[in-house]
């Protein structure tokens, strides 16, 4: 079965090699263009920018003239594009001297820059593999992240070369905003550091640019108060711009002891204060405008797309509701429980809800082989099949579900719920049936395992737990919180012992929170209701407990006042508990738990639905 590719160290090495080469080309390509070389008496084809604090040695007109070092301050370190160069202007002389000293770039210079980029790239990817959430270990996410960084570098280079704007207009904060919204803030902080160094390299690692970019990126991450809505990025960007202004003022006053605000603002397009504020606002606007595109590039599903997939008029959902109504109702009940659980631990609750809707779509191919789609009293077709044939049919709903979803254009993060909600569990009911029959074909347990993979994210792990918990919850009688909590713990410990949660990223704190939240939610889902008067009347008429007739429809006499009472009819006695359990055990769908679940003392009803026998 095709699954999403997890990037290992070899993939990280290849990505770093490509990224370092690409970033080096972006950083140095303009130095190889002869038409960009500045000459006195001609207008500049590009903006000439000298890094803050650079010491420039202008060429001597004669040997008798001593060399003189020129220190560029923070307010006059660039010559705008289209300026006619004057050899009597000290700023022009210094800018031309600096540019000529860089052209053409030497091999040693290019190799040094390449090593810097390669080192930063390897450090970032190593962090993602070892400390990032599991979604960041996917090849799609890592490649997408470098595509976004490379796009930012390209835009920044064009802004620096062909505009008269200050370098602080670079919308660097847009990248950490996208990463924070798609993944988490901690990863966004690391990405901000790497991206800030990459952008500063375009100006030979300008100290002021590096400091302000770091300040803007960190500010945007910390001030993104609502990751669910794009409009929050606008406010975060504006506040990040203010952070950049404060960083610029603080650094300049620290290094120079002065900052002429009037002179800076009078330059308008070249103003650094305006640039810092404008760069933050621009980053917020771009972040909100291109959020969906960035999330798709990172392998994440935009919220707008997820909301579309929750529409019950979606063709695939309508198909499932029509052909596998029992499985559809089970999925809807799972969605409510899974969404609450995901929200409790800070996972993507909307993604989990969508995954719950679509995870069992494969059951619509052969719906009658799953007990929830059988009518009352309808025999199970598994009774006439060999256990290995039954297991193959049950296993196939995972593969067929993934195929249907992919053919239907459903995003891969949603398809992942289909092939991970059973993990690599054994369909224990049929495996035990095969062993009791003497295993005439000499099969191994592997023939009865699901062909999927263990959950790789918190969201898919939550759905795996809820799939078993929701089914088992139907057998809890009476529906008390303590009983629900015991059942949830039993399911959770079973998954832990089987190793199915090892790759999910769930912490012990998360698991403890999940137990509490799911127990509370189940209690609320099975809340008690006061009996209607007609139910009490029926109980008195039939002489049975009111609970036994609580689901009987009211008679016409009870619906219409004045009619004579219905004749006394003794309803059929309900089946005994043992008979109910035996019947259910022969019809339940195969969402089997691992074999070691037997170590836990369980009630007969728990074993029936909680273990998910076919």
Word description of this protein:
- The protein is mostly helical and 614 residues long.
- Helix content is 56%, strand content 1%.
- The strands form two sheets. A two-stranded antiparallel sheet has the order 1-4. A two-stranded antiparallel sheet has the order 2-3.
- The longest helix is centred in the middle third of the chain and has 26 residues, at 231-256.
- Mean pLDDT is 84; it is low at 56-76 and 546-614.
The end-to-end span amounts to 23 Å
Helix content: 55-70%
- Overall structural class, as computed from helix and strand content, comes to mainly alpha
User: In angstroms, what is the radius of gyration?
Assistant: 33 Å
Instruction: Output the number of helix runs.
Output: 25
User: Which strand order do you get reading across the main beta sheet?
Assistant: 1-4
Helix/strand order = HEEEEHHHHHHHHHHHHHHHHHHHHHHHH
Low-confidence sequence ranges: 56-76, 546-614
Mean of residue pLDDT? 84
- Describe the global form: elongated
The fraction of residues in strands falls at under 5%
The major sheet is characterized as: 2 strands, antiparallel
């Amino acid at each position: 079965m095709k699954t999403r590719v997890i990037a290992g160290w070899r993939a990280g090495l290849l990505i770093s090699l490509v990224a370092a080469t690409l970033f080096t080309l972006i950083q140095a390509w303009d130095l190889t263009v002869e038409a960009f070389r500045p000459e006195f008496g001609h207008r500049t084809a590009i903006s000439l920018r000298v890094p803050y604090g650079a010491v420039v040695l202008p060429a001597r007109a004669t040997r008798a003239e001593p060399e003189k070092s020129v220190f560029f301050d923070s307010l006059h370190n660039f010559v705008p594009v289209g300026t006619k160069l004057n050899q009597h202007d000290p700023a022009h002389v210094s800018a031309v001297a600096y540019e000529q000293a860089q052209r053409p770039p030497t091999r040693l210079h290019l190799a040094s820059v390449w090593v810097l980029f390669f080192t930063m790239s390897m450090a970032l990817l190593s962090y993602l593999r070892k400390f990032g959430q599991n979604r960041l270990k996917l090849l799609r996410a890592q490649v997408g992240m470098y595509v976004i960084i490379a796009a930012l570098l390209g835009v920044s280079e064009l802004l620096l070369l062909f505009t008269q704007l200050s370098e602080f207009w670079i919308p660097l904060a847009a990248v950490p905003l996208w990463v924070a919204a798609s993944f988490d803030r901690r990863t966004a902080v690391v990405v901000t550091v790497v991206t800030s160094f990459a952008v500063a390299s375009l100006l030979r690692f300008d100290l002021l640019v590096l400091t302000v970019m770091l300040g803007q990126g960190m500010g945007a991450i910390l001030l993104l108060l609502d990751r669910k809505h794009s409009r929050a990025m606008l406010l975060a960007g504006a506040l990040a711009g203010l952070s950049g202004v404060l960083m610029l003022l603080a650094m300049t006053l620290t290094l120079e002891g002065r900052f002429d605000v009037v002179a800076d603002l009078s330059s308008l397009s070249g103003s650094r204060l305006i640039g810092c504020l404008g760069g933050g606002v621009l980053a917020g606007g771009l972040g909100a405008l291109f959020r969906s595109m960035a999330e798709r590039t990172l392998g994440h599903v935009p919220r707008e797309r997820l909301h579309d997939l929750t529409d019950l008029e979606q063709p695939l959902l309508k198909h499932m509701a029509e052909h596998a109504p029992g499985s559809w109702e089970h999925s809807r009940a799972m969605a409510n429980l899974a969404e609450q659980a995901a929200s409790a631990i800070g996972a993507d609750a909307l993604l989990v809800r969508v995954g719950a809707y679509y995870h069992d779509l494969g059951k619509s191919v052969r719906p009658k082989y799953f007990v929830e789609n059988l009518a009352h009293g309808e025999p199970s077709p598994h009774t006439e099949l060999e256990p290995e044939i039954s297991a193959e049919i049950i296993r196939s709903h995972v593969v067929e579900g993934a195929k249907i979803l992919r053919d239907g254009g459903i995003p891969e993060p949603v398809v992942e719920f289909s092939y991970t909600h059973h993990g690599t569990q054994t369909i224990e009911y049929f495996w035990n049936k095969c062993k009791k029959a003497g295993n005439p074909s000499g099969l191994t347990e592997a023939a009865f395992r699901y062909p999927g993979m263990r959950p790789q994210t918190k969201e898919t792990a939550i759905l795996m737990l809820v799939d078993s918990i929701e089914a088992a919850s139907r057998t809890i009688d009476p529906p008390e919180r303590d009983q629900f909590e015991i059942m949830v713990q039993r399911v959770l410990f079973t998954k832990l012992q089987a190793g199915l949660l090892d790759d999910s990223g769930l912490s012990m704190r998360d698991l403890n929170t999940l137990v509490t939240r799911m127990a509370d939610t189940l209690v609320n889902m099975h809340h008690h209701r006061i009996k209607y008067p007609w139910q009490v009347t029926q109980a008195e008429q039939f002489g049975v407990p009111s609970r036994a007739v609580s689901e009987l429809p009211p008679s016409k006499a009870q619906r219409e006042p004045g009619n004579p009472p219905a004749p006394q009819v003794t309803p059929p006695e309900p089946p005994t508990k043992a008979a109910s359990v035996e019947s259910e055990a022969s019809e339940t769908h195969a969402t089997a738990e691992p074999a070691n679940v037997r170590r836990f003392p369980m009630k007969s009803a728990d074993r029936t639905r909680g273990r998910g026998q076919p």
